[in-house]
Design a protein that fits this description.
The protein folds into 2 domains: 11-183 and 322-331, Rossmann fold; 185-312, 2-Layer Sandwich (Hypothetical Protein Tm841, Chain: A,domain 3). 32% of the residues lie in helices and 25% in strands. The chain has helices at residues 11-22, 86-96, 110-125, 154-166, 171-183, 232-246, 267-284, 314-321; strands spanning 27-29, 37-40, 50-57, 74-80, 102-107, 130-135, 185-193, 211-214, 225-228, 254-261, 287-294, 303-312, 324-326, 329-331. It has a 6-stranded mixed β-sheet, with helices on both faces. The protein has a 6-stranded mixed β-sheet with strand order 9-8-7-12-10-11. Helix 3 links the parallel strand 5 (102-107) and strand 6 (130-135). Helix 2 crosses helix 3 (110-125) and helix 6 packs across helix 7.
Length: 332
């Protein structure tokens, strides 16, 4: 294992140390929570719904990297590929509470659900109203949208939630938008190689040099099928076919597209994949309203990629277009 770390059991705390030191104009640590709660530098904002996203480390820029202006207000930070415990979630909640309530949004994983729900109960006991919208975009993970995992499509859901909250609307209105954004987002991914969690010191799974796995989760959860590596166009077709079978799109409709790298996939390969997505959608008469290509939700140094689509209406298009400035994401 080759990693630029000091103590493999201290990587998260040392990462946060460096992060807040590098970007004091945009983020700060919230009081309490064992130093594991990062919030925007100007939090709390009076009368604004606070937006909390979060999950385990190792997915950077998700989730901590999306805290900032026009984006999320706070993020509790878990260990690598592990949910944050209730304490930093509650610390982040207190720090972003401007009196209009707080919304939680995170991927649908058992540990996250348990810990965020506990924090929501504790916040409620302090008079802070909390509502939760799970991200469930991973088509490969379950037949029902309610049971699916949350992966890279969470970027779109978080973007819509944060932009809606920035319009200073009520908690109920932010929740409604959040549920719509999640319901209209789908993702499929492919893995070419595993990653190594520093504290474990070994790969999370194994793939032969000539193998790929379609539908593998961002923590190494089993996918839909393994097989020989195929061309970029064939792989992209497989991902897009699964998305379109689950969320059919008609001629004249609009989407935003994310081609996301999992940590070790060159931009060259991601743009080759985007080329195929654009061609396929053009054949269907579907308009790409906005495009994102790069690393948005990673899995340490895993090689692979995912394709996410959000089916836009006028409201979601406006929110996806809204400006944002965070340490790891800028949109003007």
């Amino acid at each position: 294992m080759k990693k630029l770390v000091n103590d493999p059991f201290a990587v998260v705390d040392e990462m946060i140390d460096g992060y807040v030191a590098a970007h004091p104009d945009l983020v700060k640590r919230a009081p309490g929570g064992n130093g594991r709660a990062v919030v925007r530098a100007d939090a709390p904002i009076a009368d604004k719904v606070g937006v909390i996203i979060g999950g385990g480390s190792g997915h950077e820029p998700a989730f901590m990297g999306y805290v900032g202006q026009g984006s999320a207000d706070g993020c509790p930070v878990g260990n690598v590929f592990a949910s944050p415990p209730p304490d930093p979630i509650l610390a982040a909640t207190r720090a972003v509470n401007g009196g209009a309530g707080v919304i939680y949004s995170y991927g649908n994983y058992a540990g996250d659900v348990m810990n965020f729900d506990m924090a929501a109960e504790l916040a409620g006991a302090e008079g802070i109203e909390v509502r939760t919208v799970l991200v469930t975009d991973d088509v490969a993970s379950a037949p029902s949208t309610d049971d699916r995992r949350g992966i890279a499509g969470g970027f779109f859901v978080f973007k819509a939630i944060a932009a809606r909250a920035a319009e200073m609307v009520s908690l109920a209105e932010v929740e409604t938008t959040a549920r719509k954004a999640n319901a209209r987002t789908r993702t499929m991914g492919v893995a070419l190689s595993a990653c190594t969690v520093p504290a474990a010191g070994r790969p999370t799974f194994s793939l032969d040099e000539t193998e790929m796995e379609i539908g593998l989760g961002i923590h190494g959860e089993p996918g839909m099928r393994r097989g020989p590596i195929e061309t970029a166009d064939k792989v992209t077709d497989a991902l897009l076919d699964a998305i379109l079978a689950d969320m059919p799109l008609a001629k004249g409709e609009r989407v935003a597209v994310l081609v996301n790298g999992l940590g070790a996939t060159p931009a060259m390969e991601l743009y080759i994949m985007f080329r195929r997505v654009a061609a396929r959608l053009s054949e269907l008469g579907v308009t790409i309203h906005r495009s994102y290509v790069g690393e948005y939700v990673t899995s340490l140094e895993m090689a692979g990629a995912s394709v996410s689509l959000i089916h836009l209406d006028d409201e979601l298009a406006r929110l996806i277009d809204a400006p944002a400035r965070t340490p790891m994401f800028v949109q003007v």
